[in-house]
Amino acid sequence: MKLLYFIGFLLIIACHSPGNKNKLNSNEVNNFITENLEAKSGKAFFDFDAVDYYHSDMDENTAANLINQQKTAIDSIQYNLIIDETSEDISNAYFINNLEKAGFKKIKIESADFKNLNQLFSEKAERDGLNFACIPIFRDILVFKKNDKVTGVAKICFGCNDYKIIGTDANTSNFGQGKDYEILSLILNKYIDKN
After folding, report:
1. How many CB atoms lie within 10 A of CB 189?
2. 3-state SS, residue 62
3. What is the pTM of this model?
4. Is the separation of the CB atoms in 63 and 121 below 8 Å?
5. For 149-179, how does the pLDDT look when each residue is reduced to its tens digit (9 = 90+)?
6. Distance, CA of 56 to CA of 148 (rounded, Å)
7. Which of 9, 113, 119, 179 has a Cα-to-Cα distance from 30 of 20 to 30 A?
């Protein structure tokens, strides 16, 4: 019975965005990332020299309503970006051009975070992970670029510990295991807190 209460509690707190974490000072964040980021990683998912981070504060109720109603063109765009699977064709300008129209805020990731992102978004051995049974709401989207050309996209749902990675032939099946989501959340929180 205690297990059911615990699972219920996890489901209640599960669907959140990275901006909702308790505030940690930058030294604590950097120490946690350094201690928990896997030093040995395989093939990188993306070759990049720039990363655009798109974040939406859309709440669960609004996202759930998108499933049932897509009255306007913006509703349809939001549904496709936040709930639905995204086209595998990352050269499709429709995807990138509609992120801001759909209410996502664009934030440039600083090059100081590229090494950590490259380690996170690379092939790894299987580790323990935690997945939740919920409908993913992709409020966080990273667009990786090389010479101003999109090389990959990662759609992240921190609430369900789910992802959709597009534009790589690397094995992405072990992404999100261990403390990947927690580390990524801490990296992205710096940018949400600044804006």
Report:
1. 19
2. helix
3. 0.80
4. no
5. 999 999 999 988 899 998 899 998 888 888 8
6. 23
7. 9
